[in-house]
Amino acid sequence: ELPEASRIWVFDELHKQKQWRSWLKGVFDLHGNEHEILVTGSGRLDLFRRGGDSLQGRYYLHRLHPLTLSEVLGATGPGSPEEILELGGPVASSAVEALEDMLALGGFPEPFLGGSARRAARWRLGYGTRLIREDLRDLEAIRDLDRLELLFDRLPGLVGSPLSINALREDLEVSFDTVKSWISALERLYGAYRLSPVGPPRIRAVRKEQKLYLWDWSRIEGEGPRLENLVVSHLLRLVDWLADVHGEKAELRYFRDVTGREVDAIVLRRGKPWFAVEVKLSAQELDPGLRYLVERYRVPRAFQVSLRGGVERRLPDINGTRVELVSAARLLAALP
Q1: Among residues 97, 102, 126, 125, which one has the least CA distance to residue 114?
Q2: Kind and range of the H or E element at 177?
Q3: Cys staple from 114: which of 71, 119, 172, 237, with CB 3.0 to 4.6 Å?
Q4: What is the C-alpha separation between 48 and 15, in angstroms, rounded?
């Protein structure tokens, strides 16, 4: 029975009900003018919207990400996309401390708010089991869950490097198509995501080598790849915010050339490069890969961010690109 006096109706985990789409369609058509309806759920909800009765024209999709630094700090965030790259004044010590906590504990609310490395480790074990043994088992026609768990355990070691499905195929002793389908299934349930490269042929950019990242970056052992994953996840949140809130087409890519020079992330807005980001644990000088990119590819802004020890400063413009060395806390705190 629906509460008629409530202005907002919230339905959580509705996808577990049979014929939930048809039911929700009927509720909206009957009560949509009098009540605001919020439907929340796991990655399944995003997947299940592709089949069954159409809800086209009846909803807006908003993707929920792990916590971001600005959310942890209680910042209101930018009001418009144009405000995002105005990074503001000195970084508060609380922002630096919060970023270190996020790096260690991850961005999911339960382990982060628990504030304990032991509690976070226990949560990660349960998260992996639930994802493989419950969500994927129920949603996908996958029988070899043991090998899928082996793949899931291998993924943290692949972050930050070009993804080789062939190498995974050989390790797991399954077919190329099987590994490819398993990774796609993990993406649909927000276990991992991939970035594609960008760059014109004249700068010898690779065209097909994707990179893989995790929604739970705390599973990554190396501090460098873990920081890269954290920053890239914040940038993915920005791209989805531009689409879900402002209706702007945006993409997150990376750059790599045939000799191995690389830039961790490039944000495209309306089909054109907006800004590039290179991630370092600590750096004083401009990374050669970032310099190579901005010398040959028109990017309005470029940031080299470091977790600790770097000196913040603006460098002379390169090929019309404004280049800045900033702390990771400063850049991430400015993002939504």
Answers
A1: 102
A2: helix 176-188
A3: 119
A4: 8
Supply the pTM of this predicted model.
0.90
| List of residues 6+ apart from 45 with CB closer than 8 A | 14, 15, 39
* Share in percent of the chain as helix, strand, coil (round to 5): 45, 20, 35
Contact predicate 9/3, CB 8 Å: yes
| CA 252 to chain centroid | 9
Q: Which amino acid is at 24?
A: L
Q: Check residue 138 and give its pLDDT.
A: 67
pLDDT bin (cut points 50, 70, 90) of residue 288 is very high
Length of the chain: 336
Asked whether the beta carbons of 2 and 9 are under 8 A apart, the reply is yes
The pLDDT tens digits for 183-241 are 998 998 889 999 999 998 889 999 889 999 999 999 999 999 999 999 999 999 999 99
Give dist(CA 165, CA 34) in Å, integer: 50
State which H helix or E strand residue 165 sits in. helix 165-172
pLDDT band at 318; cut points 50, 70, 90: very high
- Distance in angstroms (rounded) separating the CA atoms of residues 299 and 292: 12
Residues 265/231, Cβ–Cβ less than 8 Å: yes
Sign of CA dihedral 78, 81, 83, 87: positive
Residue 293, helix vs strand vs coil: helix
The rounded Cα 61 to chain-centroid distance in angstroms is: 16
The percent of residues in the chain predicted with pLDDT above 70, rounded, is 93
Taking only the tens place, the pLDDT of each residue in 244-282 is 999 999 999 999 999 999 999 999 999 999 999 999 999
Give the integer Cα–Cα distance in Å for 205 and 225: 22
Whether the per-residue pLDDT at 46 is higher than 70: the answer is no
Residue 3 identity = P
